[in-house]
Amino acid sequence: MNAVGSMSPAPPETGTPATRPTSGGLQLRGLVKRFGDFTAVDHVDLEIPPGGFFALLGPSGCGKTTALRMIAGLEFPTEGRIFLGGQDITGVKPHRRPVNTVFQSYALFPHMSVIDNVAFGLRRRKVHDARAKASQVLELVELSHLADRRPQQLSGGQQQRVALARAIVNEPEVLLLDEPLGALDMKLRRQMQLELSRIQREVGLTFIHVTHDQDEAMTMADIVAVMNEGRIEQLGPPEELYDQPETVFVANFLGKSNLIEAEVLGEDGPWLTIAAGSAQARLLSDRCVSRQGRLLVGIRPEKIAIAPVGSDDEGRHGTFADRDGEVWNTLAGGVVSAMTYTGVSTEYQVEVPGIGSVEVFAQNLAGDVLAIGDRVSLRWRAKYTFGLAGDEPISAGAEVEPG
Ligand SMILES: Nc1ncnc2c1ncn2[C@@H]1O[C@H](COP(=O)(O)OP(=O)(O)OP(=O)(O)O)[C@@H](O)[C@H]1O
Ligand SMILES: [Mg+2]
């Protein structure tokens, strides 16, 4: 592996890269890494298909970098195997793996021009046409016009793109990106996220992008693996993780969730009826981790409609079906206790007797913003409700500091 963008210059390369497998992605099987008594990566099984944009998302210290370092060959697993294209690469030396890494700190060779930085690895390997190949990749990252500059004459975002070009030019099977945008300010970060997605689509390499930023993972990746304390909590396309979280950690770490303690009362076709305080509600049993006992029932804040008492919703409690057969859950008797106006939307805290505090995000469609103390009713399409294990700590993932 060539540690492109690491703090120190790239290590000398010896040998030739492993023969490139013709197909197949990356597989982690039962991967464990212990440092003394501490388990940093705890039985991770992952199947990463070739040619996609894969994100590993989780809070600081959850084991993302350790997992990446094992894929790169910089750390040897305590247990488990790593396969690339069906080949076991667990024991393969870093520089013989068709894997490159781009780190957050992308120190380039300061005394070399941009193009020479990019061509460096190729020249070391005595690759024919190093300069022409480097030029092509510079075009891809839209830096051709700055090819003769020195790194210190570039902005942070431009330097990051040079680091990326240095990795891509080696045509690795897999590109590992460890918080590569971490040093950039928010605006540049957003811009580079789009750039990275475009570049990944154009080159078609497998990107494994490590981040603690949920927006970044959601906007860039085809598949996101949410990691917590060394384990994969859930894996799937961003919409699926958001729409149907399977653990409290995922429900709270990816966006916000209202989680309400409830008890299953009964089952009726695809529906479960649950009781929470004095209210009853319905949810689809296939969006629920269990069909009986205690549950944490979840609903995303933007799925809830808020209406002042006095409108059509007044007095409606529990569950009802509208004329189109859509099933709604309703909570009546709420009072707005806090609100944050953000322009496009308003975020309300509503105290509901017997339930507690419910968060609602309302789009300011007509500008009719409510006020603290207003009495309101809440309703949402029952099909958006999800059910999680009742014994999970309700704030898991909500209070973790971003890495
Ligand atoms: N060489 C090491 N020796 C002992 N403990 C280590 C070592 N490397 C990592 N750890 C520990 O393993 C855990 C996971 O570290 P890792 O760097 O993988 O986290 P991370 O998810 O990348 O976090 P961040 O988002 O802050 O970069 C941490 O608690 C860390 O302190
Ligand atoms: Mg890390």
TrEMBL record:
Signal peptide: none annotated. Residues 26-254 form the ABC transporter domain. One of its GO terms (molecular function) is ATP binding. SMART domains: AAA. It is an enzyme of class 7 (translocase). The keyword rRNA-binding does not apply. It comes from the Bacteria. Its EC number is 7.6.2.11. It catalyses: ATP + H2O + polyamine-[polyamine-binding protein]Side 1 = ADP + phosphate + polyamineSide 2 + [polyamine-binding protein]Side 1. InterPro entries: AAA+_ATPase, ABC_SmlMolc_Importer, ABC_transporter-like_ATP-bd, ABC_transporter-like_CS, Mo/tungstate-bd_C_term_dom, P-loop_NTPase, PotA-like, Transp-assoc_OB_typ2. Residues 1-25 are annotated as: Disordered. PROSITE patterns: ABC_TRANSPORTER_1, ABC_TRANSPORTER_2. Residues 16-25 have a biased composition (Polar residues). Keywords: ATP-binding, Cell membrane, Membrane, Nucleotide-binding, Translocase, Transport. The keyword Translocase applies. SUPFAM superfamilies: MOP-like, P-loop containing nucleoside triphosphate hydrolases. The complex is composed of two ATP-binding proteins (PotA), two transmembrane proteins (PotB and PotC) and a solute-binding protein (PotD). Part of the ABC transporter complex PotABCD involved in spermidine/putrescine import. Responsible for energy coupling to the transport system. Belongs to the ABC transporter superfamily. Spermidine/putrescine importer (TC 3.A.1.11.1) family. This is Spermidine/putrescine import ATP-binding protein PotA. The lineage of its organism: Bacteria, Bacillati, Actinomycetota, Actinomycetes, Micrococcales.
